[in-house]
From TrEMBL:
This is 16S rRNA (Guanine(966)-N(2))-methyltransferase RsmD. GO terms for biological process: rRNA methylation. One of its GO terms (molecular function) is methyltransferase activity. The keyword Iron does not apply. InterPro entries: DNA_methylase_N6_adenine_CS (IPR002052), RNA_MeTrfase_RsmD (IPR004398), SAM-dependent_MTases_sf (IPR029063). Keywords: Methyltransferase, Transferase. PANTHER family: METHYLTRANSFERASE.
Length: 206
């Protein structure tokens, strides 16, 4: 397990109601975000650290953003040349906003799906039979989705893939291992507890 990192809360870099893409082909693009209770776009500082962990260029990678919300994570991945990004969001108004963002950016590598994030993790992906290379999970903190989402994500992720997961608290290696995950990186920024996870090796029998 890598040593846990830490981060201070990010300074505001976009006005309220906006997110800013911080890297890649759409760097510095500012996108409006509709006001929704509990909607928490991932801060710039956290996204910057995340893409230091993943690598700045995601060429060839297929990504799923299962609780897309503002689209900050999935659109950041698409800006960094991911081959395909599927953004799933159940709020119809946010879905329309994500579609408008994709059209504005001329994002041919982005698909928007209005639906449930858990269902997207559960459903087999015809385009990705071996699983997604990167899965982003940022469910509402108060919805009790952490453990169900972590269990379903094991099926959705490619064997050598990465799971980025935001939670309202830090999860330690022991409790993650019980769910089949290894914690590779961690940071806290304000109320955001960001984890980068990989699938734990299969346990060999006696």
């Amino acid at each position: 397990m890598a040593q846990a990192g830490s981060a201070k809360p990010a300074a505001a870099s976009a006005t309220p109601g906006q997110v800013r893409i911080i890297g890649g082909q759409w760097k510095r693009s500012r996108l409006p975000v509709a006001a929704r209770p509990g909607l928490r776009p991932t801060p710039d500082r956290v996204r910057e650290t995340l893409f230091n962990w993943l690598g700045q260029d995601l060429h060839g990678r297929h990504c799923l953003d299962a609780f897309a919300g503002s689209g900050a994570l999935g659109l950041e991945a698409a800006s960094r040349h991911a081959a395909q990004v599927l953004l799933v969001e159940r709020d119809s108004g946010l879905c329309r906003q994500l579609q408008a963002h994709a059209q504005r950016l001329q994002a041919g590598n982005v698909r928007i799906q209005c639906g449930d994030g858990l269902a997207a993790l559960r459903a087999p992906c015809a385009q990705q039979p071996q699983g997604w290379d990167v899965v982003f999970l940022d469910p509402p903190y108060a919805a009790g989705l952490d453990e169900p989402a972590l269990k379903l994500a094991r099926r959705a992720l490619a064997p050598e893939g990465w799971l980025y997961w935001e939670s309202g608290r830090e999860w330690g290696q022991a409790e993650l291992a019980a769910l089949g995950w290894q914690r590779r990186h961690y940071l806290r920024a304000g109320q955001v507890h960001a984890h980068l996870l990989a699938l734990a090796p299969a346990q060999e029998g006696p």
